[in-house]
């Protein structure tokens, strides 16, 4: 599938928009053929590897939000081909305004029919990394209309310190949403067309609604970081777990150049 590797035409005004808002949605990033070719394997693995068997009513808010399986690229050469695609990697680097990006990890987010709210949060709370040059590509494997729980973003919130110490929870939803409203940060949400992909910074606050449809919402995410990103001491047990899971062998103060963190795209 050539659109995995060929450049996507990104304009200076879109880079400026991302710098200002901390997120951007781009249309027609991947073709229907590409999403069909790789999406079936991503969904199959997500269902096969998922360990959550409780009914939705018996789960916590976090566990009702989605089924989550990490680093599928290590489980399947087909998914590995998708995750290492140079088009998405180049977009990540150009939006971050860096010369190259490494993989931090991937994760599949499968919101079941009836699945609940994904509470407001910032991803980088979980990551022991030394700069804000991190970015997540949120890649729906099918169209995501509003009733299916698309991702939404608080525009410009990447500069807000309040809430950075809160993981995904009922508390984070209540406190972060209230703070965003108090300070006038607009919440930007809406459906995703097939082939549309969003990118957001690690410190941009975001959330997703419940899935009120009868169909699952299948999404693949790829988290990239500046190719020169260094490991820092973990601030909590969650960051320590992330370090051990996704950066094995990395040393504090040095670039995270482990076997799990290959360079996806580098400027020539």
From TrEMBL:
UniProt keyword Oxidoreductase, yes or no: yes
Record keyword Oxidoreductase present: yes
SUPFAM superfamilies xrefs: Clavaminate synthase-like
Cross-referenced InterPro entries: Phytyl_CoA_dOase-like
Top-rank taxon: Bacteria
An example Gene Ontology molecular-function term: 2-oxoglutarate-dependent dioxygenase activity
Swiss-Prot/TrEMBL keywords: Dioxygenase, Oxidoreductase
Gene3D superfamilies per record: q2cbj1_9rhob like domain
Residues in the signal sequence: none
PANTHER family for the chain: PHYTANOYL-COA DIOXYGENASE, PHYTANOYL-COA DIOXYGENASE DOMAIN CONTAINING 1
Protein's name according to its UniProt entry: Phytanoyl-CoA dioxygenase family protein
